[in-house]
Specification:
This protein is of the alpha/beta class. It has 21 helices and 25 strands. A hairpin with a 4-residue loop joins strand 5 and strand 6.
C-alpha cells in the first residue's frame, strides 16, 4: 500500500534524509555483485579536483550537476558506475591561506620553519579542507566518497615521485637557469594559470639611445625606443627592430650607448617585434621579459639581472639604484633620463598588467634556477591523440586552442619555491651543491662526495604536475584495470591546456591509453549582464544559499534549464523559481494519481482504446528516445526542456484533464505507468523529489537511484 502524500513537497525535510539513505545504502559504489547489472559495461567520471581551500561556486555546481546527471543516468541503465571524487592540495593557494592565518597570530612561516609550517597546513586541511565535499553532497552529487582522493595522499605522492623519476631517467626533466614568471610576494615561479591581468593606466616613455661610431663614441644620432618599464633598461642587452621595418633597415648591426649604464649594445632585427608598438624599436632586457629572453637566446645576448626575487634592484643595476624597490628605481631612472635630455616623449598608456592571482602583486619575469619538463615529444602525443579522434573535444571548436597551444609549446617550468606541495625527489651534495641525485628515497650517503648527508631540494612541484595524473594516480590497481580510461571528462574551457592536455599525455605515457574518449567543455556561468562572476566584486553567487532558498532539485533544474548547448549562461535566478514550481507541479500530479489509485508497475495496459491514451503513450516513447539521444549528445538543457513540456503540458494539462471523468482500470494503469516513467526519466536531473515519490508510492523497500 503506498503512503499518503503531504499536500506540499518540503525539500528541507527531505533532501538530507534521502541523501543519507543513498549513502548508507552504498548506492554510490559500483555494485558489481548486484544482479541488475547485466550489461557488463562500466561508466566512470573523475571529478575535476577542486582546491582544498575552495567552497562551492557556480562553476562547480554546473560541472557537478552535469556529471551527476550522467552518472545517475548510466547507473539506472545497469552500468557498473563510479564517480571518483577528490580535492587538490593547491600549493600556492593553500599556503597563502595558512600564512594569512599565521599573520593574525603575529608569526610567519619563516618563524616556524618548514617542518612546523607543513604541520600547520595539515592541521588546517583536517579542519577546513573538505568543506566543498559536504557542499557537493548538498547538491546531490552521487560520487563514491569511499574513493575520495587528495593529491597529497601517500599513494598519490608515490605516483608523483614515480612520474618525476621516470621523466628524469628518460632525459625529459632538466635543471636550468631560465626566465620565468615570478611573484615577489609569494617568492616563487608561477604557471600561466596563476597569472591574471588587470587594466593599468601608466606611461609610455620614448627614450633616446645614442648611436655610436666604430670607435665606440656617441654620435649626434639616436634611435628612440618605447617602454612602459624604464627601470629595466639598466639590464638592456640590445635594441630590436623588425627586419621588415624600412625605417630602421640601415641601423641593424650598428650599436648604441645604453644610457645611464654607458655600455654599448647592438641593434638587432627580429621578426617578433611589433612594428606598430611605440616607435617600432624596443629595448631588449633578456633577464626580465619572457619574449626578450627568447630574442636574447636567438641573438646570443647577455642576460643581465637587475631585479631580485623580492622586487629590489641588484648590484648589476648600479650603485645609485641597488636596493631600491622597483617603483623607486623607475622614478629615479626617469629623473636621470630627463636630466640627460634623453626623454623624447611621454604619453598616457593603458595596458593589461600581469599580476599574481593570489597576492595581486605585479609579475616580474626573472632569471632563475628551475626544473623543466621537455615538452616536444609529450606535446606531439597529446596532439595526435586529439587529431586522430582517440579523444574528442566537445564542442569541436575548443580543439583549436588546444592544438595551437601544443604546436607552439615551450618547456614546462615544473618547480615552485614554496613549502606546501610535492617536494622534488632530488637530493643535493652539501660539498658540491651543483651535484645531485634523483631518488625516491633519501640516499644513505652522498653518491657524489661519499661522506656528506645529502639535502633534499627545497622546491616543490607545480600543482598541475600532480593533477595531470588525476585519471590514474591514487586509484587501486583493480580500479585502474576496470575504470581506466574513464568515460568522459567534464571541465571548463580555461584549463583545456593547463590540465586536459597534460592529463592526456600523462595517460598515454603511463597507462598506454588516452584517459578519456570525450572531453566535454561546458559553458561559463556569467552575471545576468554577461560579466564574469567575482566574489571580490560582490557579483559571485553562493550555490548553497540557492539550495537553502529553493532546494537542491530546483537549483539543479535552474542551472541545467539555462545550459543550452555549450553556450555561456547569463545567470537568471527566475529559472530556479521555475524549478521550484515544477517540483510542486510534479508533487501535485503524483498526489492526483495516488488519489485515482496507484497500480503496481508490473501490470501492463490491457487495451488502448481511447485516443488520448494512444497519444500520451506515443509521446512518452518519443520522449524516452529524445532523452536518450540528448544525454548521449550532452545536450542537457534541451533535454530538460522536453521533459518539462511533457510533464507539465502533455501529462498534466492534457491527459490528466481529459481522463478525470474516466473510471476504467486502464486509466489507472496508464497514469501509474506514466508517473513511474516520469520519475525514472527525471531522476538524474531532480533526484530528491523523484526518489521521495518513488519510495512513497511505488517501492518503499527499494530505491529509484538503483532502478532500471
Amino acid at each position: 500500500m503506498s503512503e499518503e502524500l503531504p499536500k506540499a513537497y518540503d525539500p528541507k525535510a527531505t533532501e538530507d534524509r534521502i541523501y543519507k539513505m543513498w549513502e548508507d545504502g552504498g548506492y554510490f559504489k559500483p555494485a558489481t555483485s548486484d544482479s541488475r547489472l547485466a550489461t557488463g559495461k562500466t561508466y566512470a567520471i573523475h571529478l575535476p579536483p577542486p582546491n582544498v581551500t575552495g567552497s562551492l561556486h557556480m562553476g562547480h555546481a554546473l560541472n557537478a550537476t552535469i556529471s551527476d546527471i550522467l552518472i545517475r543516468y548510466h547507473r539506472m541503465r545497469g552500468y557498473e558506475t563510479v564517480w571518483f571524487p577528490g580535492t587538490d592540495h593547491a600549493g600556492i593557494a593553500t599556503q597563502s591561506v595558512v600564512e594569512k592565518n599565521l599573520k593574525k597570530e603575529g608569526i610567519s612561516r619563516w618563524d616556524l620553519g618548514r617542518e612546523k609550517f607543513i604541520e600547520k597546513v595539515w592541521e588546517w586541511r583536517k579542519q577546513y579542507g573538505d568543506i566543498i565535499i559536504s557542499q557537493l553532497k548538498k547538491l546531490g552529487a552521487s560520487a563514491d566518497w569511499s574513493r575520495t582522493r587528495f593529491t597529497m595522499d601517500l599513494e598519490y605522492a608515490g605516483w608523483v615521485k614515480k612520474v618525476f623519476i621516470h621523466y628524469f631517467e628518460k632525459d625529459l626533466i632538466y635543471r636550468g637557469k631560465r626566465v620565468v614568471s615570478w611573484c615577489t610576494a609569494c617568492q616563487t615561479s608561477l604557471s600561466d594559470l596563476e597569472i591574471e591581468y588587470k587594466e593599468e593606466k601608466t606611461k609610455l616613455w620614448q627614450i633616446k639611445y645614442p648611436l655610436t661610431d666604430d670607435k665606440g663614441q656617441t654620435t649626434s644620432d639616436f634611435i628612440i625606443v618605447a617602454t612602459t618599464r624604464p627601470e629595466t633598461m639598466l639590464g638592456d642587452s640590445a635594441v630590436a627592430v623588425n627586419p621588415k621595418d624600412k625605417r630602421y633597415e640601415n641601423l641593424v648591426g650598428k650599436k648604441v650607448l645604453l644610457p645611464i649604464q654607458n655600455r654599448e649594445i647592438p641593434i638587432v632585427a627580429d621578426e617578433k617585434i611589433d612594428m606598430a608598438f611605440g616607435t617600432g624599436a624596443v629595448k631588449i632586457t633578456p633577464a626580465h621579459d619572457l619574449l626578450d629572453a627568447e630574442i636574447g637566446e636567438r641573438h646570443k645576448l647577455p642576460f643581465v639581472p637587475v631585479i631580485n626575487g623580492i622586487g629590489k634592484m641588484t648590484a648589476e643595476a648600479g650603485k645609485d639604484f641597488e636596493g631600491l624597490k622597483i617603483a623607486e628605481a623607475r622614478e629615479r631612472v626617469v629623473a636621470e633620463l630627463e636630466k640627460l635630455g634623453l626623454i623624447a616623449k611621454t604619453e598616457d598608456y593603458t595596458h593589461n598588467l600581469a599580476i599574481c592571482y593570489r597576492s595581486a602583486t605585479p609579475i616580474e619575469p626573472l632569471l632563475s634556477d628551475q626544473w623543466f619538463l621537455k615538452m616536444k615529444d609529450l606535446a606531439a602525443t597529446a596532439l595526435e591523440t586529439v587529431q586522430s579522434g582517440k579523444t574528442k573535444i566537445i564542442p569541436e571548436n575548443f580543439s583549436k586552442p588546444y592544438i595551437s597551444w601544443l604546436e607552439n609549446i615551450k618547456d614546462w617550468c615544473i618547480s615552485r619555491q614554496i613549502w606546501w606541495g610535492h617536494q622534488l625527489p632530488v637530493y643535493f651534495c652539501k660539498t658540491d651543491p651543483l651535484k645531485f641525485v634523483v631518488s625516491e628515497e633519501k640516499p644513505a650517503k652522498c653518491s657524489e662526495c661519499g661522506n656528506c648527508e645529502m639535502e633534499q631540494s627545497q622546491d616543490v612541484l607545480d600543482t598541475w604536475f600532480s593533477s595531470a595524473l588525476w585519471p590514474f594516480a591514487g586509484l587501486s590497481e583493480e580500479d585502474q584495470k576496470k575504470f581506466y580510461p574513464s568515460s568522459v571528462l567534464i571541465t571548463a574551457r580555461d584549463i583545456i591546456n593547463l590540465w586536459v592536455g597534460r592529463m592526456i599525455f600523462s595517460g598515454m605515457e603511463f597507462m598506454g591509453e588516452t584517459p578519456f574518449p570525450d572531453v566535454l567543455i561546458h559553458g561559463t556561468i556569467l552575471t545576468k549582464d554577461g560579466k564574469r562572476m567575482s566574489k571580490s566584486l560582490g557579483t559571485g553567487i553562493d550555490p548553497i544559499g540557492l539550495i537553502d532558498k529553493y532546494g537542491a532539485d530546483a537549483t539543479r533544474f535552474g542551472i541545467i534549464w539555462q545550459a543550452m548547448g555549450n553556450q555561456d549562461i547569463h545567470w537568471d535566478e527566475t529559472a530556479l523559481a521555475g524549478g521550484k514550481k515544477f517540483a510542486n507541479k510534479l508533487w501535485n500530479i503524483a498526489r492526483y494519481i495516488h488519489g485515482v489509485g496507484i497500480v503496481p508497475r508490473n501490470l501492463d495496459v490491457q487495451r488502448v482504446e481511447h485516443v488520448e491514451d494512444k497519444e500520451i503513450l506515443e509521446k512518452l516513447e518519443i520522449l524516452k528516445k529524445e532523452v536518450e539521444k540528448g544525454t548521449q549528445e550532452y545536450d542537457f538543457g534541451q533535454t530538460l526542456h522536453k521533459i518539462y513540456d511533457f510533464v507539465w503540458h502533455d501529462l498534466a494539462d492534457k491527459y490528466i484533464e481529459t481522463s478525470k471523468d474516466r473510471t476504467d482500470e486502464n486509466v489507472k494503469l496508464i497514469l501509474s505507468g506514466l508517473l513511474m516513467d516520469v520519475l525514472k526519466i527525471l531522476h538524474p536531473f531532480m533526484p530528491f523529489i523523484t526518489e521521495e515519490l518513488y519510495q512513497k508510492l511505488f517501492a518503499k523497500d527499494s530505491a529509484l537511484i538503483a532502478a532500471e
